[in-house]
Design goal:
267 residues; alpha/beta; Rossmann fold; six-stranded mixed β-sheet; four-stranded antiparallel β-sheet; 35% helix
Length: 267
Amino acid sequence: MTPSIQSADATISIRGVRKTYSLAGSVSPGKTGKKTGPRDVEALRGVDLEIREPGFYAVMGRSGSGKSTLLHLLAGLDRPDTGEIIVGGCAVHSMKENELVKYRRREIGVIFQQFNLLPTLDALANTILPGVLDGRPTKELETRGREILGELGLSDRLHHRPEALSGGEQQRVAIARALLFSPPVILADEPTGNLDSTSSAALWRLLEETASKRKMIVLMVTHEAIAASHCQRTFILKDGRVAGEFESHGLDPSQLAHRSSELARTA
């Protein structure tokens, strides 16, 4: 297995995507025990979003704006009620379950806030796990894993388990795992949520460099203006819709926060 360093067809197209969740009724605590009936929550209300070239992008919005739902749909972890989602040429919205499994394993990489590393595996084994599950030859996978971990500055941590790694190092292992198949798109869900400010800044720079070097899309969900200031373009979500977008590279966090607030206010 010798994946190209350049990913093919690094594009995202989202058109008219809607997603509603049905919540069961509940009983409030206390003596009254007031009951609430089941209700529907519109998480996404017709999202349109286009990314046509590689780079580092951000999706910003307050809690409940639909950021996480959008990422889950892009990752094939959930399905839209209506609309189209095309990632790297793959029509995610119409895939069958077995196709989604292969898509998640080979066509995208996902970086989670919680790292999601297996505690019993070392850094190298965690990195190549998607390839093992895909039935690829172990020797080739290990060669590829060492290469990526080396590029991320972890050559001396190959056989360290997560408990022996710092938070920043664990997140770099998660990035290496996401890069195993050189996917055209990487999705990052609040990737610095468990890191200190120094490690966070280093990770944002690493994601920016990764997108540039490998000619891929890195799309990061965040609520932090300082995180989005490292991205070339930022999309603002409000109430399940894209309120607007703007070039964000070069803006300081206060300027970016002001632009995003203005877009959300006037949407």
